[in-house]
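Protocol step 4 of 6: record predicted structures for both targets in the notebook before any analysis. Target 1:
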Amino acid sequence: MASRVKTKSSKSKSRKDNMPKRNKKNFRPTKKGAGMTEAGVRAYRRKNPGSKLKTAVTKKKGLTKSEKARRKSFCARSAGQMKKFPKAAKDPNSRLRQARRRWRC
C-alpha cells in the first residue's frame, strides 16, 4: 500500500499570514485613532477573498441602518475589551480608547 503524505491545508494557516503589513499605509497610528486605513482594508481583502471587512463608521449624520448596527456592535465588543483590559481602559492614549473615540463610542 502506498502511504500518502499529509500536507497543510489553507485553513491551518496562521492568522498573521493573512494580515497586511503593519505600516503607515495600512494601519493608523494610535494618536490618529488606531485601526486600519482604507488601503489596509483593501490589502486585507486581496489576501482574504470573500472578506467583508470594512473601515470604521466615523460620520455623525446620515447613517444607514447597517452602519448604525455596525457601530453599535463594535461599541459593545470594545466595551467588553475595556472590562477585560482595565489598564488599557484607564490609559486615554491606548489603542483601545483611541479606536473607541474614532468610532464615537
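Target 2:
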Amino acid sequence: MRQRIRSSANLSTARPTGQCRSTIRRLRIATGVAYWLRRLGGAVTGVVAQLGYVARFLMAVLWHTPDAFRRLHLTLREIYFSGVLSLVIILMSGLFVGMVLSLQGYETLKRYGADEQLGILVALALVRELGPVLAGLLFASRAGSAITAEIGLMKTTEQLAAMEMMAVDPLARVVAPRFWGGVISMPLLAALFSAFGIFGGYLVGVRLIGIDAGAFWGQMKAGVDVWPDVTNGIIKSLVFGAAVSLIAVFEGYEARPTAEGVATATTRTVVISSLTILALDFVMTVFMFRGANVG
C-alpha cells in the first residue's frame, strides 16, 4: 500500500516530457493570439460603431438645419462667437507665418537667383496649404474647444434635459446653430489668414529685404489662379470647418455630465480635430493635385 502511494506521488510530481511542454507552449501561444485577435476585433467594431453613431448624429443635425436658419439670430451669434472672437489669433498668426515664410523662402530662392519669385512662393504656400490647415488647427484649438466646453457644461447643469422637458429639441436649439456657425466662419478665417500672411510676406520681402514691389505683386498675380489654387483652398477650409464643428458639438453633446467628463471631451475635441484636419488635408491634396495634373 505504501509503495502504491509513493508511486502515485512520484507520478504527480514528475516533470512533463518534451512533447507535453511543446503542446503546452502551443496552447499558450494560441490562447494569446486569440486574446489579441478578440481585442483587435473589439476595437475595430467599436470604431465602426462610433463612426456610425457620428454619422447618425450628423444626419440629425442636418435634419434640423432649417430650424437653425429659421432662428437666424442664434446662428449669427455663433458666427460671432466662433469667427469674430477668433480674429485676433488668426490674423496675428497669419501675419507672423507669412513673415517667417518670406524669410525662409528668400534664403532658398536666392541660391538659384530667383528671389523675385518670392511673391508667388508665399501666395501659393498660404492659399493652397498653410492657410486652410493652420487656420483649421487654430480654429479647433480656440473655437472647437470652447463649443465643446459650452455644450458639455449645459449638459452637466441639466439645461439640455430642461429643454427636452419643455418640448424644445436641443439639437435644433443648441447644436445646429453652433455647427453651422463653425462651418460658415472657417472659410472666412482661412481667407483672412492667407491675406494677412501675404501681407506679412510683403512687409519682409519688399520693405525689409528690398525686393521690387512690382515684381513681388506681378509674379503673384501671374502665378496664382482662382482655379485651382484659390478654389482648392476654399474647399479645404469648408471641409475642415465642417469636420471640426461636427467633432466639437458631438463631443460636447456626448460628454459625461461631470467636470472631468467635460475636460476630457474638450481635450478629445482638440486632439481628434487636429488629427482629422491633417488626414483630410493629405487625402484632398492627393485628389486635387491629381485633378490638376489630368487637366
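Step 5 preliminary note on target 2. The radius of gyration is 29 Å. DSSP finds eleven helices and no strands in the chain.
Proceed to step 6 after PI sign-off.
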